[in-house]
User: What shape does this take?
Amino acid sequence: MTLRPETSEAGLSGIVTLSLYDREGQLIEEQTVKNLITDAGDLYYATRGLAAVVPSATADATKVTGMKLGTGTTAVTKASTAAALITYLTASNLAFDATYPQIANLGTTLGVNAVYRTTWGAGVATSAALTELVIVNDAGTNATSTAANTISRVVFTAINKGASDILVATWNHKFLGA
Assistant: This one.
C-alpha cells in the first residue's frame, strides 16, 4: 500500500506593501506586491523553528536584521544570484523599525503573519528608480547581500523617492499549517 500525501493550503507566502509619503506625511503612492521567499528563507524559518525545540541538535540561523533597496529589474528566483539584490542602492541598508518584527495572529484557521517594517526617512535612499527590496541578515553592511544572506526578495514598479520623501516597507510572511 502506498500512502499519498493529502493536498492542503499549507505553506509560507509573502506580501510587501510599499508606502511613499511626502514631507507633510501625505501618501503619494502605495504598492502591494507578492514576494518570493528564497531557498535561504525556507531554510531560515525551518532552522529557527527546529532550534527552538528542546532538546535540539540544530544550530540556530543568523537572525535577519533589516532590509536593503536596489534598482535592478531581474526577475526573482528562489535560488542563484537572482534570489539576492541585483543592483544595491548605496546606503539603503537599514535595520527594522524599533518595534519590529512583530507577530500578527490572523485568527482561527487563518494563519499567522511575521511582520517586518523598515522606514527610509527624508534624505535616505533617494532614487528615481527604486525597483527591488530584500530582507537580509546583514543589514549593517553597506553593500549588496548574497543569496545566502537573503530570505526574501521582491521586484516592483519603479518608485521615485525624492530627497524629502519617506518610504515605508511593511512585509508579511504568512504561515499557514495544514
